[in-house]
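Justification of resources, computational component.

The compute hours requested in this renewal are based largely on the per-chain cost of generating structure records like the one below. Each record pairs the submitted sequence with a full structure-token output. That output is archived, and it is also reused by downstream analysis tasks.
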Amino acid sequence: MMKTNLLKSFLLALIVAMLPQLASAYDFIVDGIAYDISFNNTNAIVTSGGNYEGVINIPSSVTYSGKTYSVKTIGNRAFDGCTGLTSVTIPNSVTLIGNSAFYHCDGLTSVNIPNSMTYIGNFAFAWCTSLTHIYSEIEDPSTVTLQGSNIFENVSKIYGKLFVPSGTSNIYRQTDQ
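The structure output for this chain reads:
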């Protein structure tokens, strides 16, 4: 009986110790950025779980276990609640920013959106209360799908270039400077 209880206790301790590895929400981390591998095994998707503080420069490709993946997507909630994040540069390889990708990143002051962008999800930059500078290289706003009208909810001062497709309303409040 005592051996059985000891064995159960040992197995329980082993399972508890392994939970972080078993419950991993990402496939791999490179340079502090967490990624999932796409369903077709060719692209990497930036996801939650990395060390997201300060300035982040997302690479256009990443190599893991000898294979190079193109970074095309910032996934849903990838940086959600990363209050220590201050600046993000997104490479031209990225075409999609998922829903709530940068939601509530209170320390985020600037973001660089490339001209390759085709989709920006609902609440993508909502409640980024320190966000003041958006640099966008998007030349033809008709090529970008903006999901919903809450992309920049509760962001009161944005300076820089941000092209918004005609007919889109309530994307953000802008003040004059």
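Confidence is low (pLDDT under 50) at residues 16-23, 167-177. The chain has one helix and 13 strands.
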